[in-house]
Amino acid sequence: MTPRITGAVALRVLTQLRRDHRTVAMLIVAPCMLMTLLWWLFLDQEQIFDQIGAPLLAVFPFIVMFLVTSVTTLGERKSGTLERLLAMPMGKVDFLVGYAIAFGVLAIVQSLFTATLALSFLGLDIEGSWLTLGLIAVLNSVVGTALGLFVSAFAETEFQAVQFMPLFVIPQILLCGLLVPTDQMPGFLEGASKILPLTYSVDAMQEVVSYQNWTTDLSADVVVVAAFAVAVLLLGAATLRRRSA
């Protein structure tokens, strides 16, 4: 990996996204709208909003980044841009890490807007710091980005890319502990939840909600989520095709 080339890829993606106002709106406005809807839904049940609001600050970026990245990367392949880029002296890892950095920057902006809305205007109550909350949200968005890059290698159309969502995203939402605590699930489902990154993201957010200081369990969760991001990026590099289908 060459830092100069990786940075150039990230800058190109950011420049391209800056001109795509609909994508920017989806990345920034949609999570804010969803969080506001959640607050409205539990307007008279603040305790429930506090309990699930923080974990959803990790879930929303994961979903949005997965969708945007998988569709955007597939568009690069179909237009021939990906083939032309990889024909240059640039490795697959440069391309993938450049994309991850670009969407990571967007994730920081997204997390800033959503967390500010939730904590300042919607009254979400947490014990930990905003910085820790934002770090976990950004890490989770990077996992979503990496997973979107990975699945885009197996799709031929944008519709097919979206079809991967029921396979890679919805099971994680069901098993991450947001709906039912993982230790209360049937044995097989509890075991399955332990190999899904979203489970550790939700656990980390619940640590931030419950404890003011950084805990050992929080460190373990953050390390696992970061490891998932790196592993999926490497898988994406292994499956990324230099030629369009």
TrEMBL record:
Membrane topology, as annotated = Multi-pass membrane protein
TM spans (from-to): 24-42, 54-75, 96-124, 130-154, 161-180, 222-240
GO process terms (BP): response to antibiotic
InterPro entries from the entry? ABC-2_transporter_component, ABC2_TM, ABC2_TM_bact-type, ABC_2_transport
- PROSITE patterns linked: ABC_TM2
**Major localization listed first in the record, in broad terms:** membrane
A Gene Ontology cellular component where this protein is annotated is: ATP-binding cassette (ABC) transporter complex
Write out the GO MF terms. Answer: ABC-type transporter activity
Q: Where in the cell is it found?
A: Cell membrane
Q: Where is the ABC transmembrane type-2 domain?
A: 19-243
Keyword Cell membrane belongs to the record: yes
- Keywords tagged on the record: Antibiotic resistance, Cell membrane, Membrane, Transmembrane, Transmembrane helix, Transport
Similarity comment: family membership: Belongs to the ABC-2 integral membrane protein family.
This chain belongs to which protein, by name?
A: Transport permease protein
What organism is the protein native to?
Solicola gregarius
